[in-house]
Amino acid sequence: MNTDSSAPLSNRRDFLSTSGRIIAAGSLAGLVLPKVHAAGSDEIKLALIGCGGRGTGAAGNAMVQSGAPKLVAMADVFESKLKGSYKTLKDKFDDQVDVPDDRKFIGFDGYKKAMDCLKKGDIAIFTTPLAFRWVHFTYAIEKGLHVFMEKPVTADGPSSRRMLKLGEEAAAKNLKVAVGLNSRHSRALQELHQRVQDGEIGDVMLMRGYRMQPPIGSAFTVPSMRKEGQSELLFQISRFHSFIWASGGGFSDFYIHHIDHLSWMKNAWPIKAQALGGRHYKKSPEGEPYIDQNFDSYSVEYTFEDGAKLYMDGRCMIGANSIYSSYVHGTKGMAIASKSGDTGLPSSTYHGQNPTRDKMIWTSNVPPGETESHANEWTDLIQAIHDDKPYNEIKNGVYASVTTSMGRMAAHTAQEITFDQMLNHEHVYAPDVDKLTLDSEAFLKPDADGKYPVPEPGIKKDREF
Ligand SMILES: NC(=O)c1ccc[n+]([C@@H]2O[C@H](COP(=O)([O-])OP(=O)(O)OC[C@H]3O[C@@H](n4cnc5c(N)ncnc54)[C@H](O)[C@@H]3O)[C@@H](O)[C@H]2O)c1
Fold first, then answer.
1. Are residues 275 and 331 in the same domain?
2. How sure is the predictor about 449, in pLDDT bands with cuts at 50, 70 and 90?
3. How many angstroms is it from 49 CA to the middle of ligand 1?
4. Residue 130 CA, closest ligand 1 atom number
5. Is the domain of 176 the same as that of 239?
6. 54 touches ligand 1 (CB under 6 Å)
7. pLDDT digits (tens, 9 = 90+) for 185-224
8. Could you tell me if residue 6 is inside a domain?
9. What angle do helix axes 53-63 and 373-387 make, rounded to 10 degrees?
């Protein structure tokens, strides 16, 4: 499967069989698309839905772009999160933040109210856990809004198929849609991609991604983390990395960047995965039982159509060796893609398979002002809106999410999982997520000991939990 959306159709497997339905990803070529500008002015307005760490960061990245976009509405399910984000942004951007109390919305329907404050051609920012992406995206398309949504965009087959279809609808309405796979906007990785395509390291045969670190985010949950009086549903949302329905678990949330940018270097998507994984530590250092759905160690072997491999190793463990970087090996040489972190500079290429200075062919030299891929992805989106150029990262975002999910599912079931199996899988992880209210019951229930259903590799073979 080819990852380069600019490649000619004849070179791409652009037609996906999704539960008997055929989606033609390139079927919009040649159509005259309607212009979508913010009505009455060139000033772009923003609504932020999901006011946590990344949402606050993304809104900040947006507001430093040309035209000085203004934040006019915010929505979250937790008032404290919205308040904190508002204060941070107001302190920093002052008159670019125009969000009076009657444009601050709390609750699961807040996304609609926030987007109702925008005009066609403005931008909605989706930075909630992924379970809500398709719900929010559906409404943005209805309202004629451009979108920036964070990765991953799906965790299961049904929402992946739904998002592909929504991506087509957005493109037909000439809406610009950015997905927060920021590796694709790293200027160093863009140049490396070009060099790899030009054959600098030969044919790509092997790629390696490592994200091995102490526990992060909300991936490891113990009972005492529940706030007094907090509902089951809001508890799970507040600990979203712990729950596969909400986030795809730590695996999807943390490892998708390497899986995405390494697949991009190969210019293809893996066709299948087999994997190892397990949970070694069952109690926190304080002795409380972990009740989340994650493993603490994962090792996935992805296979491409030509037999090339991508290995993704992930570990969340205190005291273990930390490695967080990615590599590409070809028949003539190798590359360091991310030196450290998801997109750490510099990227570099080498003759042979050892990255030593005397064998170096190239090292990236990114101009100041373009070193931050989270800022670049906004520069690229705003530029596309100003130039009215087609801009739609949904298909790539869904493929990256499905590829990540197939690795996770391979580990969780101890079965080989193909891309087509994952995409066409029928298990709905977050049923009726569009109908939730603050009083709704959680669809995932804990057992009598307060523990949630966990993967049982080899026992549960065709579903993760
Ligand atoms: N691209 C990147 O480098 C990067 C980095 C961090 C996070 N992310 C992504 O951003 C997303 C959010 O992550 P985060 O770290 O900011 O988490 P966070 O918990 O800090 O923020 C998420 C926010 O969404 C709110 N929320 C949850 N459900 C909601 C709903 N239905 N409606 C409105 N608000 C809702 C939460 O209350 C919270 O304030 C995740 O998908 C994550 O993978 C991407």
1. yes
2. confident
3. 9
4. 41
5. no
6. yes
7. 999 999 999 999 999 999 999 999 999 999 999 999 999 9
8. no
9. 50
